[in-house]
Write a sequence for this structure.
């Protein structure tokens, strides 16, 4: 199913890119030569150009995602680690750092980029045809609802993040992490767990966190602020020896 979706994206986006390329080849000479058949104001030329760029960018994003879906997953490349890992960390994950992490991951998804591109196109159309669109407000109400939902989605996401942070007791206590070659041990007032690195299937390293996934939406977080500089570099070397998919 994943490969089928990828091929559909590739074919659909390729056809539309070809159509746009042909349209540009046909229109640009007329605009440059100020042909009587192509009468456009400066405002219309600018908005149309920006609109073309947005659409082409969205199609390229779709094409890249399609190619990504049909590609075979790369074999995880690892670098041998011959040291003895023994890192002891203590700290608490702060709400601001957790919030920024989840927001950054959530709003980098292709669907949000596509929706943002569509909203920009709609805004350009509104700028050029404001009177007509205002007169057709009743028939365009659904589009305004979608815009409203999209603009409010960060607010709803913030509420959800705050609720998750407040209801998870692990965020309210100082934790002790013991990192070794075989496992990660986490101790706190309400938690005492040891997980082998082989338990995880995926790793994501951000500017402030290590995220070790043991489910599609479930990850163990390690805040980089807890590390000493030398320990952080050592652990980064160690993670490259783990046979985990990297995001």
């Amino acid at each position: 199913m994943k490969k089928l979706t990828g091929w559909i994206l590739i074919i659909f986006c390729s056809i539309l890119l070809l159509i746009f390329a042909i349209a540009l080849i046909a229109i640009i000479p007329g605009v440059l030569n100020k042909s009587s058949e192509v009468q456009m104001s400066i405002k219309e030329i600018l908005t149309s150009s920006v609109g073309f760029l947005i659409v082409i960018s969205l199609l390229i994003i779709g094409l890249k995602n399609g190619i990504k879906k049909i590609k075979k997953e790369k074999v995880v490349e690892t670098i041998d680690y011959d040291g003895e890992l023994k890192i002891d960390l203590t700290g608490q994950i702060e709400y601001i750092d957790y919030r920024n992490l989840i927001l950054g991951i959530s709003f980098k998804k292709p669907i949000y980029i596509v929706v943002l591109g569509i909203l920009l196109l709609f805004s350009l159309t509104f700028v050029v045809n404001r009177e007509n669109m205002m007169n057709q407000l009743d028939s365009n109400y659904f589009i305004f609802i979608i815009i409203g939902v999209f603009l409010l989605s960060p607010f709803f996401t913030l509420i959800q993040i705050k609720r998750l942070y407040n209801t998870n007791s692990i965020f309210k206590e100082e934790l002790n992490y013991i990192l070794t070659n075989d496992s990660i041990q986490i101790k706190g007032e309400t938690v005492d767990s040891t997980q082998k690195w082989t338990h995880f299937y995926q790793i994501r390293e951000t500017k402030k966190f290590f995220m070790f996934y043991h489910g599609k939406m479930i990850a163990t977080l390690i805040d980089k602020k807890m590390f000493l500089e030398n320990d952080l570099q050592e652990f980064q070397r160690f993670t490259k020896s783990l046979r985990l998919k990297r995001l």
About this structure: The radius of gyration is 25 Å.
